[in-house]
Amino acid sequence: MTTVHSAHSIQVHNPADGTVVGAVPDQDRDAVAAAAAALRAAQPTWEEIGPAGRRKWLLSWQDWLIDNSARLSEIVRSETGKPRATADIEVPAAVDLMKYWANNAARFLADDHPKPHNLLGRTKQLTTCYRPYPVVGVITPWNFPLLNVFFDALPALMAGAAVLVKPSEVTPLSAVEIGRGWTEIGAPPVFSVVTGSGNTGHAVVEAVDYLQFTGSTRTGRKIAAACGDRLIPCSLELGGKDPAIVLADADLDRAANGIAYGSMFNAGQVCISIERVYVEEPVYDEFVAKLTERVAALRQGDDARPYSADVGALATPAQRDIVQRHVDEALAAGARTTVGGKSTGTGTFFEPTVLVDVDHSMSCVTEETFGPTVPVMKVADEDEAVRLANDSIYGLSATVWTGDKQRGEKVARRLEAGAVNVNDSFANMFSFALPMGGWKQSGIGARWGGAAGIRKYCRQQAITVPRLPMQKSEVTWFPASKIKTRALITLLQGMAARGKRRLPGPRS
Ligand code: NAD
């Protein structure tokens, strides 16, 4: 199950049973630079064909994805140990995202013609246009090996950039297949996948013009520093410790079902997993009983009989060890489990676990766990819940559970998080019209969210074109003169200042 690096290749394992399921090259700096150079050479033509030309390729890729969905889903499963029901979602979610960008990119990338801000500006036609960064690097983690690539590669490609992907060394096989698909449909060579570990990722940062990163806050910090050195922009989608607030007026059955799903889906390996729950005192006992019942009912296993498992393996032994450490440290400090608490089976499985009697001194509440555990805390009221929810270095997303939707929205606006779902888990993630991004140490920038989600891969270019017939010279040009300078001051001050300060003349 450990990722094995030989001199030139990396073995990929199925964490559910430890079998080797593939191998990819561990590509070095030269290989990455060569891939980036080839992309750079092909990109201008890709930009030239415009959004309508690129749309055709995107939809052709979408067809390929659907036609190969069963095989791709198996590859996702083989390198992650996910149950089928979880792996099967990746292709359709990517298909949906493809439609979003295919249908909206042209509109989002259209030139803007802003109104001039003053009278002088009216002598020009003003245009802002959106020109892509030539080569965009996309570095991804292992939790959704197929979707994570599409999340960011699609808008970058539709913006007219060429895209260089470096998937996680733990789960590179899905990304390699996606690259194969792009070639198979005969698309222009503006999408490439390089494989390897952190060094390969660093080489990508050195070779591209914009870097989109999804992964841990620890690596994100290194990438931001490397991008800073090169003075290239980056956007970072990092870790989280998402709180859920259960108010006393909530429908407790829905809250328990939603929080069981939001904390255990993909074995808790979702950046926006619910990782801590604050429950108002009057309903605490009842909620804990209901959540425990839901979590205890989850079926865990390798899904040998299709769709017989809800919760699969963790992606690596290291990930399982983090989960075990968080649980052990909590128990040693006085917490209790109401269900679960240990690893099971031969693979990297960890029992779906509910922790109670926890507090903010424990690692299970302060650090990102990224596993199937959910600590629950009792709070006196809404104010305490909001204060504790905001007491985190992270600010990715949050949920609020209440019978009063208006109250839910009011609480949402008090939370320091990039997204808040009222009475639901993950809803923001599948609303591509909304931005998805983290506050605080959960990230910089955001993906999706209408025009901003594609324009982020573009450099803005300002163009002015005269509206009036051309003269040989302009009054503001050389030679300088007192009269011309005074006229300019009078004009600018007259247009911009207030009251009598609009009038020219000396002032002490
Ligand atoms: P990670 O940071 O260990 O690795 C992510 C990627 O970065 C991998 O491809 C890795 O090879 C590469 N990398 C490592 N060192 C590098 C370096 N110095 N330069 C360039 N690239 C480097 O993260 P992970 O363990 O694969 O994924 C889990 C993390 O991802 C969790 O923290 C999770 O919250 C986060 N995540 C965030 C989002 C989001 O949208 N905010 C989504 C999914 C996962």
From TrEMBL:
<feature type="active site">
    <location>
        <position position="237"/>
    </location>
</feature>
<feature type="domain" description="Aldehyde dehydrogenase">
    <location>
        <begin position="8"/>
        <end position="462"/>
    </location>
</feature>
<dbReference type="InterPro" id="IPR016161">
    <property type="entry name" value="Ald_DH/histidinol_DH"/>
</dbReference>
<dbReference type="InterPro" id="IPR029510">
    <property type="entry name" value="Ald_DH_CS_GLU"/>
</dbReference>
<dbReference type="Pfam" id="PF00171">
    <property type="entry name" value="Aldedh"/>
</dbReference>
<dbReference type="InterPro" id="IPR016163">
    <property type="entry name" value="Ald_DH_C"/>
</dbReference>
<comment type="similarity">
    <text>Belongs to the aldehyde dehydrogenase family.</text>
</comment>
<protein>
    <submittedName>
        <fullName>Acyl-CoA reductase-like NAD-dependent aldehyde dehydrogenase</fullName>
    </submittedName>
</protein>
<dbReference type="InterPro" id="IPR016162">
    <property type="entry name" value="Ald_DH_N"/>
</dbReference>
<keyword id="KW-0560">Oxidoreductase</keyword>
<dbReference type="InterPro" id="IPR015590">
    <property type="entry name" value="Aldehyde_DH_dom"/>
</dbReference>
